Amino acid sequence: MVRRAGLLSLMLAPLGGCTLWSNLLSHQQPVADCPAVTRATAWVDKMPRIGSGDHKMIVALSLDDDRPWLLTPVPSGTPGLLTLELSPGGPAVPGHAGYRESAGTAKRETISIVCGGEERARIDQITTAM
User: Fold this and answer.
1) 3-class secondary-structure state, position 23
2) pTM, whole model, 2 decimals?
3) 105 vs 71: CA distance, rounded Å
4) By the 8 A CB rule, do 32 and 60 touch?
5) Core-most of 48, 78, 85, 100, by most CB within 10 Å?
């Protein structure tokens, strides 16, 4: 019985290490790890298209970094404000980050880019491409 319990604890020990690493990796990046935003643009794509798909609002960032970055929406509570959290990873080209959402009926007036709990960029002009 003691031998089985010892064997079981040895087999389960690596799982505890995995849990620890996943907990460490899931925390927000410190502000010092956030890259400088060198360019931030947003536009609504209302170009004519085949089919009935929704038009998209697109946000594109250029960053002073050689890693790909991801933009994730965060609840803001302010009407017309879209807050996007910048974090490492995602499918973007290194040094860039992008976000798309349906343009729908909710009009976005301002986009705030935050990283490490601080605003890194603000987009006040969202153009419309027709």
Assistant:
1) helix
2) 0.71
3) 22
4) no
5) 85
